[in-house]
Amino acid sequence: MPSLFITLCFLIISIASLASSAPIAARDVFVPTITSPHANTVWQCGQRATVTWAKSNIPASEVTNPKGMVLLRDLNGLEDVEHPLASNFNTVNSTSVSFVVPNVPSGEGYEIVLFGDSGNFSPKFTIKC
Predict the structure, then answer these.
(1) Coil, helix or strand at residue 3
(2) What is the per-residue pLDDT across 19-74, written as a single tens digit (0 to 9) for each?
(3) What is the DSSP string of 10-42?
(4) Is there a contact between 97 and 70 (Cβ–Cβ < 8 Å)?
(5) For residues 112 and 79, what is the distance between their CA atoms, to the nearest angstrom?
(6) CB–CB of 24/112 below 8 Å?
(7) Structural domains for the chain
(8) DSSP label at 123?
């Protein structure tokens, strides 16, 4: 019985070693530059707003995660992950997404976080409610 245990352990270690040395397909991270909102942007609560981004730096190889999500980063620097402004859109095939601005405290210093492969931030802007 001990030799069966040793054989199984050797087999598991061998398989794990092979799996960890297998080549991974080339994939890239796409970090689009947010072009709007910008520092002079003012959004009004309850009105439609649009986030736009540039596609000039799309990698040639497969993008790791093209599905996008837009979050609002509040005046305290916190993102509302529970309530995305927009989600499930393709950041590679599009350059914008629109939504209704939520009812939040008025202030300067809001940011947009655009997710897909990675999170990138817009410049700080103003929301008035």
Answers:
(1) helix
(2) 444 454 545 566 678 999 999 999 999 999 999 988 776 655 555 666 789 999 99
(3) HHHHHHHHHHHHSPPPPEE---PPEEES-TT-E
(4) yes
(5) 9
(6) no
(7) 28-128 (2.60.40.1930)
(8) P
